[in-house]
Amino acid sequence: MVQPQITLYATDFSPYSHSVDIALLEAGVNYTRFEVDLQNKPEWFIKQVNPAGQVPALTYGGSDAPPSEPSLDSIKLRESHVLLELVADLFPEARLLPEDPTHRAKVRLFMDVLKTKLLPVWYAHFRGGQPAEPFLVVLEELQAMLPPTGFVAGEWSIADAAIITILVREEVILELEHEVSGWSAGEGKRVLDILHGPRFARLAQYQRELEGRPAFKATFDKAQIADKFASWFNRVVRLRKQQV
Ligand SMILES: N[C@@H](CCC(=O)N[C@@H](CS)C(=O)NCC(=O)O)C(=O)O
Question: Which intervals hold domain GST N-terminal (predicted)?
Fold first, then answer.
């Protein structure tokens, strides 16, 4: 059977888009990728693809159409964790989710903690000027959920795609130490040293293994992501100053 078309609407700096890119590549799927300019979102994107105006979003199936004119009969979906499950379900032979139901449950629990606990404290730290410790505590909780070797569920799964894109962006942001974060001088370096120290030894080893996978390497250009974050942060600072 011919695989129905898949179009992923994504933005390079978005960790959520990046996770879906990784899952699609890990599954060896042919897909079309459309880069959405979030500063200048096309009207058709909001009207016809994702009314929430966010990336990632995905269209599946339907008649042939260019990404900027999505066909009416394709299925439109969004939310990175939903899309990760979708890719795993569409391509079961790629084993993006383990077969054992208890291992699948581990994957889902890890993704739940990531979404409901880690992301709020991550944003609070790097955009809200809040202390790093709550973020580090949740990261430790996630580290404790890892087996002694290998990935979240032993074999690679969508849970690994979900977290690696956050871990690498966290490093970029800490290295940037941009004024938008509202940190005192040296905070980025201090947190980086903690992440690279004994407290997070297992997480760092896990991160290195994930960074070594071909699907990750093919989708991550650290210098380019750092540039994008820097211009985003500069824009936020400019806007904040205009509002004062
Ligand atoms: N919960 C969503 C979050 C997606 C999200 O926040 N996307 C950001 C980019 S990282 C976005 O599209 N922002 C544009 C906007 O909200 O206008 C997911 O996991 O897919």
Answer: 4-95
Would strands 6-10 and 32-35 be described as parallel, antiparallel, or unpaired? parallel
- For residue 236, the tally of other CB atoms under 10 A from its CB is 14
Domains of the chain by start residue, with CATH: 6-94 (3.40.30.10), 101-243 (1.20.1050.10)
In ligand 1, the atom with minimum distance to the C-alpha of 13 is 10
Residue 206 amino acid letter: Y
pLDDT of residue 244: 75
- How far, in Å, is the centroid of ligand 1 from the Cα of 148? 32
Ligand 1 pocket by Cβ (under 6 Å): 11, 14, 16, 38, 53-56, 79-81
Per the DSSP assignment, residues forming a β-bridge with 58 are 8, 77
Distance (Å) of CA 99 to CA 23, 85, 86, 94, 155: 17, 13, 15, 11, 10
DSSP 10: E
